[in-house]
């Protein structure tokens, strides 16, 4: 007889654990779902917290990363159920903090268990089969949703209600389908080696500012005074209105320039005041291809490790994440 494979399922809340609350005030996380239809798999459930994902903080993510590292050696795969609103942030932090040798797959649902179109069971089964599959070894944290497999660095929530809620440029790195009962899993690229970051805490303060036509820097000075570092969701390839240039020139703290555009890199192309080239010359750090909220988590991790602005710049420049 073959040994059963061991799967750890870590429940954290979200719609996948939700139902309408008895008081009629709306849908809330209540009950962890179970993984359907897996034969020859021994499941251990863990429930470190049960939260809607807008309530999840970097401190919860750090706790979760430690729990995954703790349970992984005794299991063949780990899945994490999570609310979809901040799922990509938790996935990216697990990617940053855990070695790629731990197969950890995050999933959730867009419809709750009381709805006819409840998408929890399919996503759970997909996540479990992906986590346990030999081709998943060495890929670290992944997101599985609607049959698509996503890299934690590029995945993002692209729809507020659709069941295929996740995407992001350049798209999925793999796919799970079924032939009869058997899972058919393909990856479109080989895994990459990388070294995880190991912060003791995530207590640095990093805030995000969102650029818009006509922004004159309102809120910048206040955010800069409070925070250890800033991320700006800038325009296009990382450009800002001219008024921001002198503010950034005067800032000693790291200012990372991401983009509010949904795909593509931040590059020092434009030389008009506030153009990307002038911001970089003023000391700002381009976020590469990370969206603003993932750039924030990377900056938060690096500042919590005590890196200075020059060292932070190198990490972003070298895509060392
Ligand atoms: N589909 C979901 O899970 C959304 C929910 N608001 C959450 O992120 O917790």
From TrEMBL:
Active site (UniProt): 15 (o-isoaspartyl threonine intermediate), 15, 84
Pfam entry (one): Asparaginase
Keyword Hydrolase: yes
Signal peptide, first to last residue: none
Keywords linked to the UniProt accession: Hydrolase
Entry GO MF terms: asparaginase activity
Annotated ranges, domain L-asparaginase N-terminal: 6-177
Domain named Asparaginase/glutaminase C-terminal: residues: 205-316
UniProt binding sites for substrate: 53, 84-85
Keyword flag Hydrolase: yes
Example of a GO biological process term: asparagine metabolic process
Region annotated Disordered, chain positions: 14-34
Domain of life of the organism encoding this protein: Bacteria
Family that this chain belongs to: Belongs to the asparaginase 1 family.
Protein name according to UniProt: L-asparaginase
Organism ancestry: Bacteria, Thermotogati, Deinococcota, Deinococci, Deinococcales
């Amino acid at each position: 007889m073959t040994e059963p494979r061991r799967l750890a399922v870590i429940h954290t809340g979200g719609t996948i654990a939700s139902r309408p609350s008895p008081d009629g005030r709306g849908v809330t996380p209540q009950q962890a779902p179970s993984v359907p239809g897996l034969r020859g798999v021994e499941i251990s459930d863990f429930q470190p917290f049960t939260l809607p994902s807008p309530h999840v903080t970097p401190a919860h993510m750090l706790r979760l990363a430690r729990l995954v590292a703790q349970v992984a050696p005794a299991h063949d795969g780990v899945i994490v159920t999570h609310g979809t609103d901040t799922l990509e942030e938790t996935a990216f932090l697990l990617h940053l903090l855990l070695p790629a040798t731990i197969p950890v797959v995050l999933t959730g649902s867009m419809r709750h268990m009381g709805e006819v179109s409840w998408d929890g069971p399919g996503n759970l089964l997909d996540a479990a089969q992906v986590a346990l599959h030999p081709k998943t070894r060495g890929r670290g944290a992944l997101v599985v949703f609607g049959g698509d497999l996503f890299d934690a660095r590029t995945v993002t929530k692209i729809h507020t209600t659709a069941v295929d809620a996740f995407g992001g440029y350049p798209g999925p790195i793999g796919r799970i389908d079924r032939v009869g009962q058997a899972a058919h899993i393909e990856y479109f690229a080989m895994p990459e080696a990388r070294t995880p970051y190991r912060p003791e805490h995530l207590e640095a303060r990093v805030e995000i500012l969102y650029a818009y036509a006509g922004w004159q820097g309102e809120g910048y000075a206040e955010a800069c005074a409070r925070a250890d570092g800033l991320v700006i969701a800038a325009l296009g390839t990382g450009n800002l209105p001219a008024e921001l240039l002198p503010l950034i020139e005067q800032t000693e703290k790291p200012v990372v320039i991401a983009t509010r555009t949904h795909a593509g890199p931040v590059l020092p192309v434009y030389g008009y005041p506030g153009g990307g080239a002038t911001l970089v010359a003023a000391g700002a750090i381009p976020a590469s291809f990370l969206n603003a909220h993932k750039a924030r988590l990377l900056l938060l991790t690096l500042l919590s490790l005590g890196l200075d602005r020059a060292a932070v710049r190198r990490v972003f420049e070298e895509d060392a994440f």
